[in-house]
Amino acid sequence: MMDYDATSIPERYRTARDLPAPVMRQWLLAVRESAPLPPGPKIADVGCGTGRFSMGLADVYGRHVVGVDRSARMLAQVHSRHRHVSFCVADAQALPLRRGSLGMLFLSNVVHHLPDLVRAAEGFAHVLRPGGFVVVRNYVREQLQSVPYLEFFPEAYTASVETLSSTSEIEGAFARAGLAIASHRTIEQPVADSPADYLGKVRSRTYSDLAAIADDAFEAGIARMTAAVSDGWRRSLREPIALFSFQKRALTRR
């Protein structure tokens, strides 16, 4: 598990990884379609980082959102406030939440940071109401070849292959925790307006696989990407990201 507080990523993350308003709206609508919640229960944005999804989730669902992250420095980068959003420092595998208190847990690019996904999923099921959802937004192993920047960073590609789960592994882990798959889709997320803009995002080194490789490997990849962009590199500037929703079985009356 990466310790973001031991890196310089938190201070760069919000600027480099914030999503444009139309892209964020696309994600929020997709999440709401994947997890149609009844009125009332709270939502937890687990591994919320700088809170980039927390505010939008509060707006689109019209309920209170608790943003949870183990990195105090990431939470310190939350610059905007929302009267229906609160934040706390906590580990995703030891959530300080009451049993059955949540209608939904949302995890954006979190599951590959969890050392024991089955155990974590069991914890999510514990704090979830019957009929509630866990929504997972994450890169998956089988789609890595479609992530544009990775063609320049073979070491980061290898690190991602070793770190990311496959679709079947994610679905299996949640199934073992008693959470049934409700939906699964892939969204091709626009990541930059131009190759030069994309290079700038990659150069920020806020992707966890780039942070995990040696400095010389990162600089060599940046040199290759810079040369390619200068030579007119053209590729679809979209990254495939999977969106899963899992549902806890509702109680049945006898």
Structure report:
With 254 residues, the protein is of the alpha/beta class. It has a single domain (4-145, 158-192, 236-248), classed as 3-Layer(aba) Sandwich (Rossmann fold), CATH 3.40.50. Helix content is 38%, strand content 22%. It has 10 helices and 7 strands. The chain has helices at residues 9-17, 21-34, 54-61, 72-75, 117-127, 154-163, 167-176, 195-203, 208-212, 215-230, and strands at residues 42-46, 65-69, 85-89, 102-108, 128-138, 179-190, 238-248. The chain has a 7-stranded mixed sheet, sandwiched between helices. Strand 1, helix 3 and strand 2 (65-69) form a beta-alpha-beta unit. Helix 2 packs across helix 3 (54-61) and helix 5 (117-127) packs across helix 7. The longest helix is centred in the C-terminal third of the chain and has 16 residues, at 215-230. The N and C termini lie far apart (44 Å).
Brief synopsis:
With about 250 residues, the chain is of the alpha/beta class.
CATH superfamily: Vaccinia Virus protein VP39
Give the count of helical stretches.
10
CATH architecture: 3-Layer(aba) Sandwich
How would you sum up the global shape? globular
Count of discrete domains? 1
Give the strand tally: 7
Strand content: 15-25%
